[in-house]
Amino acid sequence: MLASEIKTKIIKKITDTRYYSIILDCNPDISHQEQMSYVLLCVDISSSPRQVNEYFSEFLKEDYTSGKGLFDVIVDELKNLQLDINDLRGQEYDNGSNMKGKH
After folding, report:
1. Is 68 in contact with 45 (CB distance < 8 Å)?
2. How many separate domains does the chain show?
3. pTM of the entire structure?
4. Is 8 part of any domain?
């Protein structure tokens, strides 16, 4: 319940500022399952001076680390968080050889 309440407050901050960015980082865990950390960034308009805040959303299990697979995960997660993909202003990928054209 606490995690759900915190996530609700984070989403409220993001929707208040409207625009946001995401950071995705894929790494295998100890059982060799690919997991992706999902981080949301937005400008905190309630603070002075304005500052960029990063919010860890969750770890997502990822079976397909191709560009298409990551895209599908991003779209699904944004729908789950009820965030408009049209307000997404930046994307960052770490350890993403698939984003370099390898896969």
Report:
1. no
2. 1
3. 0.74
4. yes
